[in-house]
Amino acid sequence: MIDPRQFRDVLGAYPTGVCVVTALAESGERFGLVVGSFTSISLDPPLVGFFPDKRSGTWPKIAATGRFCVNVLGADQLSLCRRFAARAEDKFAELAHGLSPAGLPVLDNAIAWIDCTIERVTEVGDHWLVVGAVEALGKEGAGNPLLFFRGQYHDLALLAD
Fold it and tell me: Could you say which of 87, 105, 124, 145 is the most buried, measured as most Cβ atoms within 10 Å of its Cβ?
C-alpha cells in the first residue's frame, strides 16, 4: 500500500501552475475554485482539463452552469489564491474582475484566461476529471506564473536562482 504522505511528498517534487476556475450562475452568483491540476489535453479539438476534489462544495455549483473560465495566476497573486482557497460566502466581494467573451469572471491581472464549456466529467479516485472544450482564450500579461512546488507557493524567477 502506498503511504498518502509519501505520495504527496514525491509528487510535490513536480511543480504545477496555480489557477482559479470561475463560473457565473444564471442568478448572477459568481463562483471560484483554486486548481493546481490544470492541463492541456488536446490541440485538435482544443481541450483542457482539471481535477476538482469530490469534497469540494464549489465544484458542483460550477458544474451546474455548464461552463467555466480558467484564470492562470501570476506570481504576484498569492493573496488571490488564498482568497479562493478559503471557505467564504462571497469570494468576489470587492474583488476587481472583468468578464470574458462568454460573460464569465476574469480576475484582474491574471496572466491568461481560458473560456470553456464542460465537455465531460469522469469520476477518477477521490477527484473528478473535468474536460473543457475551449471556446475563447487570451494572454493578458507577461509576468511569471504562480507555482506550487514542495508544499509551497513560488515565483518561477526565484526558483531559477
Answer: 105
pLDDT digits (tens, 9 = 90+) for 42-65: 999 999 999 999 999 999 999 999
The residues facing 9 across adjacent strands are none
The Cβ-side half-sphere exposure at 96, using a 13 Å CA radius, reads 4
pTM of the model: 0.93
The alpha-helical segments, DSSP class H, found in 12-152 are 59-65, 78-85
Residues 30-48: pLDDT tens digits?
999 999 999 999 999 999 9
Size of the chain in residues: 161
- Residue 79 makes CB contacts below 8 A (sequence gap 6+) with none
Note if the bond before 45 is cis, omega within 30 degrees: yes
Cell of 138: 487570451
H helices of the chain, in order, are 4-11, 59-65, 78-85, 156-160
